[in-house]
Amino acid sequence: MGGHNGIHLTFGRLQGHISWEGMRNNVITFIRNCVICQQMKPANRAPYGLLQPLPIPDKVWEYISLDFITCLHSFPNHIVFMVVVDRLSKASHFEGRHVHELSKIFYGHFKIIKVVGEVAFQLELPATSKIHPVFHASQLKLCIGVITSALELPPEAVKRQPPIQPLIVLD
Fold first, then answer.
1. How far is 19 from 167, CA to CA, in rounded Å?
2. How far apart are CA 92 and CA 84, in angstroms?
3. How far is CA 2 from its chain centroid?
4. Annotated domain spans of the chain
5. Which stretches within 1-158 are classed as H helix?
6. What b-and-e string marks burial along 88-102, b requiring 16 or more CB atoms within 10 Å of the CB?
């Protein structure tokens, strides 16, 4: 999976070979409606919502912060480091992970079923989902265009267990 190089580069590449009336508007509409681009590319806007003060922790590892370090030139195999820091003691834990260069940023097109507070929304996730259904507005992206097929969550976010069936039913 990839995506397009944006409106300007796609338009420029096409304009070198072909032209028609309304071509710029057609390219803009096509790129904005592209499902792959919507999943793979971040939004170029300021984050939504109000800043909320963080609670002051009482115990070690009660509240943590999580971040990712990427693009380290000394690690050419596309290693990403996940950094977990305890907010009280400032103790940290680093874990290196190999990632694919074009991992999706956004998954699926899920319906908002409830507004939770000022900046959080509950989504209608699949029943097999292992993740909590409430997300901050900054983690959501508006879907533009028509959805032609159902898009799934990543494998690590879904329960993949065989169905449990009884051997026999007793009266």
1. 67
2. 6
3. 15
4. 1-42, 47-104, 106-159
5. 7-15, 23-33, 35-40
6. eeeeeeeeeeeeeee
Is residue 125 helix, strand or coil?
coil
Contacting residues for 19 by C-beta, under 8 A, at least 6 apart? none
pLDDT at 25: 92
DSSP-assigned beta bridge partners for residue 147: none
How far, in Å, CA of 65 to CA of 84, rounded? 6
Backbone angles phi, psi at 30, to 5 degrees: -60, -50
Reading the chain (171 residues) residue by residue, the pLDDT tens digits are: 345 677 888 888 888 888 889 999 998 888 888 877 777 776 666 666 677 788 888 988 888 888 888 777 666 665 777 888 998 999 998 887 766 554 566 677 788 899 988 888 898 888 777 778 888 887 787 777 776 665 566 665 566 555 556 667 776
Please report, in angstroms and rounded to a whole number, the separation of the first and last CA atoms in the chain.
53
Task: Single out the residue of 115, 157, 107 nearest to residue 136, CA to CA.
Answer: 115
Query: What's the rounded Cα separation, in Å, for the pair 21 and 170?
Result: 73
Q: What pLDDT score does 68 carry?
A: 81
Structure tokens at 67: 């971040």
Which tokens in the block code for residue 36?
């792959």
